[in-house]
Amino acid sequence: MRNCPLQHEDSASLLLDHSAGHLDADQSRALNRHAETCGRCRAFLDQQDRLWRVLDAWETEPVSFDFQRRFWLRAEQASAIRWWSGISWKPAIPLAALALCLAIGLPRRPTPNPPPPVDMAAAEAAEQAIEDLDMLSQLQSQMK
Ligand SMILES: [Zn+2]
Q1: Closest CA to 68 of 124, 112, 19
Q2: Alpha helices of 8-88 — where are they, by DSSP H?
Q3: CB within 5 A of ion ligand 1: which residues?
Q4: Cα(45) to centroid of ligand 1, in Å?
């Protein structure tokens, strides 16, 4: 490895891939050789190793009983906010009036389909990600 990966935006992800075990053996060896002579990369890799050890030792709590309901509620709220904020209201008003007329004139639709079942491992990962994001935003607001 001729150049330090931390000095180039394109190659900086090599260090993360290395720590996550996503590099092939040749790339890993080259990066390790570089880190022997580069203090910044060695420090970065040491930090990543510590982080992975902490994450590996971290025991997750079981998914709460109403996690799936809360997850879908948040997902719906997030997509609703995006959807509503992008609307220009003037052309939507006649459409809403037309939809109201149709809704009154037509029999009601059966209840909407329930959300698809969630893979529990993916659900745990998603809940963890949400909690991490909450924690990061709290940290960020404390640092301001
Ligand atoms: Zn380096």
Answers
A1: 124
A2: 13-19, 25-37, 39-57, 67-85
A3: 4, 38, 41
A4: 10
13 CA from centroid of ligand 1 (Å): 12
pTM value is: 0.42
CA of 49 to the centre of ligand 1 (A): 16
What are the CA-CA distances from residue 93 to residues 84, 88, 90, 97, 99 (Å)?
Answer: 13, 10, 6, 6, 10
Residue pair 47/6 in contact by the 8 Å Cβ criterion: no
Q: What does the pLDDT look like over 7-37, one tens digit per residue?
A: 988 888 899 899 888 999 999 999 999 999 9
